[in-house]
Each structure stands twice: as C-alpha cells, then as structure tokens.
Amino acid sequence: MRHQPFDPFESSEAYENVCGDDMRRVDDTNCGSELSERERMNNARGGCEIIAYRLTQRGHYMPLYHSHNYYEFIFVLSSGRIVFSNTGGSIESDGKCVCFHNSHVLHRNNVPGDVYYDRVVLYCGESALSMIGGGMGSLGKFTEEGSVVIQFDEHILRRMEYYLGELMLEGISPDRKCLITALILTELKEHSDPRNTRTLSPIRTYIKDVAEYIGTHYKEDITTPELAQRFFVSVNKLNRDFKRYTGSTIKQYLIALRMKYAQAMLAGGEGVKKTAEECGFESLSYFIQAFRQYTGQTPSAFSKKALGQFDYYT
C-alpha cells in the first residue's frame, strides 16, 4: 500500500492513466449506489442507519467525486490494484484492506478493468453510531481523518468477513446490527497502527460545503446564483471551483444525485409520479425524459426490471 502522486484537478482522461489504459468504465451510480440508497432510506424509517451489501465485478470506474452524509467503509476481500482518492490525493493498495471515507468528504475509488473487485460496503449513519454504547460506536482516531486505508492480514480479513456476513443476514434486527458494527469498529481501531494504516486529508475548500448543501436540498429548485450568494462567491468562481474539485458542473452533479435517489425509489417499489415529485422534478414529462437520457430506459421499464431482482451490472 502506497501513496500516489496525485493532482486533484486533473481530468478523468488523465486519471485513467493512473489505473491503466485498459480500465473498463463502470459508472458508480449504476454499481450498487441505488441499492445502498434504497436500503438506507428503508432502514432509516426503523431508526437504524446501518447497511451492508456485497458487490463483485471486473474493474470499477468513478469519473467524478461524490460525498455522503454518512460514514462509508469499503472492505476489499480480493487482491488487485485499487486507488482510493479524495481531493487531497490518493492511496494505492493491492487489495485485502478496508477504506474508510468520512462523512461529507468528496471521494472516488478506481480499479483497473482486468482486476476482479470483490468488496462489502458498510454504511453507518450518525444516529446508528449513537445507539452503540460504551464508546464502541466511536470512530476514535478516524474521526479527524478524511479517508483511511488499513491493510489486513489473512487472520483479520477472515474475521471481518465473518462479521460482515452476519451483518448482511436477511431479517437481522437493528440491535444486532449495532452490536456487530460495534465489534467491527473495535477491531478496526485495535488493528490499525502506523505499519498498516495510511490516512489522507482532503483539501479544505468551501466546495465541500456546497456539495453537502446540494446533497441535503436536492429536492429544491437549486440555482447557481443562489448558491453563489449563499457561499459569498461570484457565479463564475463557484462554477470554476466546483468543476475543478468535483469534475462536474453543478447541474450535472444535481441531476446525477436526483437520478440516484430516483433509481433507489423505483427499485424500492415507489411509483413514477411520486418518485418524480420526491426527487425535485416539477414536471413528470421532464423527469421521464431526463431519466431515459440518464439510464437509457424509461422509469417504468427500470422499475419492472429492478423490483425484486435488480442486477446492477447488466
């Protein structure tokens, strides 16, 4: 595991050279993010924001930075080259590790197209951690870090895999989820030391706050001039800085976020009209047009395919 020299402002084309020319483009918005959002929303209703699911594929390409309002742990169970990045740089690993991304940190992860990528993604919300007593739910030394990568030995990897398997059992209760998550966090904090752990601090920028604001107000009619006024910058500066740090325009970022939530709702059985309203689309016809342009299919067709048997890689 090693740090990579990294320019956070480089284009996606330049970044492909970091992971190799043969990288298969797999957009993260179509690789399980929908599942996590759907499950996150469903679990939130029960007061336990802990979600774990397993994903496997060849290669993984995330062209844009994104952030969450919850904590993300990526347990990589396979071997092979993977690059974890935030706006402060990147860390390269050969697999069999865990990557932690703090809440509201802009990040992305990339894997060459010839590498088999097997991982369990664990999401934890603030409310879930607060339910775990005795300090076991505390992130400890990870709290102040943007991203952390811990290399596993085989013994720890097998134990983590067992805990994660229990966490993914169907019908698991919120209390048991909290207990197992507490065990996982305790193991990570105890296992982490300077020999096997690398940390990465993101560049401090107001764009992090802009992205966080968009993430919590995506249903609203957000305009660039209003954002610029809210964050005390000119429209030109905001557009330039946002593109520089995230790799996308504000409009692209907002549409991608709305589409992610829309796919989550449709996969969860919500109707097309209700989904359009909940995701900030005032016009049903515009939502259908935008959804088709973004996914290549209508919301109704997507819903029929996704409901109960959704395959994220077809």
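Next protein, fold it too.
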Amino acid sequence: MKLWGGRFDKETDALVNDFNSSISFDARMYRQDIEGSIAHAAMLGEQGIIAPEEAASIIDGLRGILADVEAGKVAFSEDNEDIHMNVETFLTQRLGAAGKRLHTGRSRNDQVAVDFRMYVRQAIGEITGLLVELEQVLVRQAKGEIDTIMPGYTHLQRAQPVTFGHYMMAYANMIRRDITRFEDCLERLDECPLGAGALAGSTHPLNRYRTAELLGFAKPTDNSLDSVSDRDFALEFLSACSILMMHLSRFSEEIILWCSWEFQFIELDDAYSTGSSIMPQKKNPDIAELVRGKTGRVYGSLVTLLTVMKGIPLAYNKDMQEDKECVFDAIDTVKMCVPVFAAMLDTMKVKPERMAQAASGGFINATDCADYLAKKGVPFRDAYTLVGRLVNHCIATGQTLDSLSMEEYKALSPVFEQDVYQALSLKTCVEQRRTVGGPAHEEVERQIAAIEDFLAKRVKA
C-alpha cells in the first residue's frame, strides 16, 4: 500500500502509477532530500516533538541510506512514486516504527520545495564556477590580442576599427552580468520553506529557523502558502540560464563567421572542430553551432515552467511536478556548453594579418575623417557630408581614404592638411578612442583590470 493509501480502498491503477510517478527524474535530488530529512529530524528531536534518541536513530539511518545510494546498493522503486517516499520507505524498512516518525510536522509539499531550492542552489554554484573559468579565458585572449586591430561591425557591415582585445572584453562584460544574475537569483532563493507543511504550517512546535540554519539558508520563508507554491526561484534561474545561452549563441555566431573562409579571422583547434563525411577539405565549427542550437532548448525550459505556473491557484498542485525536468535539462545543457565553449576559445588561433586586411577596407576610418574636420572647426554635419563625398570619390576611382592625394583632399576642402594621413591611420583611429569603454590600449587594460578584480573576489570566495 502507498504511504498515503489510508483513505483508499483500491490499489492505484498501473497506468496511473506510471503517469503519476516522478522518481525517474527526481531521483537526482536524493542527496538534498536526505539532507533535508536529517535537518528536520534533528529539529524534531531538539524540540522534543520526537524523542532525542529516535531522532538520532533516524539521522543515522538516513546517513546509511545516503551512503548506500552513492555506493549503488539500493534501487529506487516506481511504486514509491518519488524520491521522498522512496527514502522514507528505505528508512522504515531499516528502523520500523521510528522511521515512521520522520514525517511528523512535514508534507511532501514543503519537502520538495526545500529539495528543489537546494538543488538549484548547488547548480548556481557550479555554473558560476564554470563562468568564472570562461571569463579567465576571455581575459587571456584579450591580453594576448590587446593591440590586434580588426573591423567592428554594425548591421554586419564594417563600421569602425576596434581591437580583438576590445571585442573579448565585450563578451567578458556580458558574462560578468550573467554571473551577477545567478548571484541575484541565489540571494532571493536563500529562504527555507521546510516547516510550511502542506500549505498552513503545523500544530507542532517546529523551529523553522533551526532547520533553515542547518540547511544553510539565511532564514525561513515568510508565508506558508507562498512557501509551497513558489517557483519564482526556478523561473529566475531559467531566465538567467536563457540570457547566458543567448550570449553564448551570439558569440557562437561570431565564431562561425570568423572561422569561415570568407573571414578567416580565427582558426579553431583541430581538437574542437569536426570534419565532413564526404568533403575532405571541411573543418566545421560544430561546437559553436551546437551551442547556438542548444540555446533554443534552454529557452524552451523557461517557457515550459512559465506555462506550467501561469494558471494554477494556491497552494501546491500536481502540475508543479512538471517543474523539475525542464530545470534539470537546462542545468545539464548549460553545464555541458560552458566548459567546451571555453576550451574552444582558449585553443583557437587568432589571425591578426587577416583582421588588419579586413580593417583596411570598407572605409572604417570615415568617422575619424569627419572628426578630423570637426576638430578643425567644421560643423560635424558639414564634415559628415564632405566625407560622404570623399567616400563616393574613392569608390568611383578605386581608392581608399588613405590613398587619396593631398590635391584630392584639398579639392574638396581647404581644411585638410598633411596631418590627415596620420589621423586616418587605423592605429591612430583606435588609440584616439580613449573614452571610457573604448578600444584604446590603456582603456582595454582598464577593462581587463576591472574584470580581473571581479574574478578575484569570486575565486577567493
């Protein structure tokens, strides 16, 4: 008979049992479930709700079950539906009546809520650790290529000169925000729902502050109804995962473009590329493509949980059993993508000569030419128009702004002097952009230092 079967005269139909069971996926929360039960048992003993010796026996039994699970000595049963009832069944089999006292003052509703929070809390720590390692790769690449000039793009058209180091810092800033989003999620998650019961607390003198302390939470949750029905922490976590994957997907798109024959800005290491079954010349950026593809999978997890939660009344409803598979899948996907993506970046070969060649075309110093005129007193809009005419002239004559003669410059405006050539060199164009956040060497060094300071605080922690 089911542990909850007292009210029922019939056994659960086999189809219903399979449909209702969650042990196939929530078994991965076995450690959190057992740790939560140990804390609950300790509190029950301390409060005199059960005898201290019974609490000690329960705790020893639970620790034994944990050891056996991790040693592969026990098998979970579909008949016991979920991880909570499996663990309680194991405990009762070992201890008899004492094991039946564990669930005093507790419901599976607050039990699963605390298990789930603890599981997501652990995942946040693991993911942020991986992101710190990715940031370290970006910093290394930025330092190594701090003066490597490349074209920056808008609308995928060459726009203005930047450096590869500056580009890496753009993504480092995105990943920094991702880390802080997970940290923010962790701060709001840091409340313990254990003791909220099914929805209305308990008539037993539970010490919820004590169980929160034992499980490493800052405090207990404030409202018992909200405690068991809240999945905001999971939604926020999935949102942070989705934004992270969006950043990785954008970066993947750039990697795919950069290693193409048309760009040739980088070359991926053989260990992080694949070939074709028919075309022997191919070297495919499959890692970047898979990261880009798996992004949709993580988005789907977020939409799944939002949809599950959107129409259910307080408090717990069985719909909420659908909260875990999407979160587990998102965790697995992110933890798979981040380290392999970091390794791909860390081993790629940058091609400065190709970047410089691309930067030399496309009139990416046109804005600098307009700024040159503006600094000499020409109103910027007039300067903009003059440079537009220069670009048209260059296109018609097959030249660049660098190759125009001084006579050609003077024919358009007497303001041009010999110093225009120095002003329009790509190195000058980059180094003169010293505004905060710009691509100048000293400014990228400042950006790197800021990221390194950010990382140092988290590596120490």
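About the second fold: Strands lie at 149-154, 157-163, 191-192, 219-220, 266-267, 349-350.
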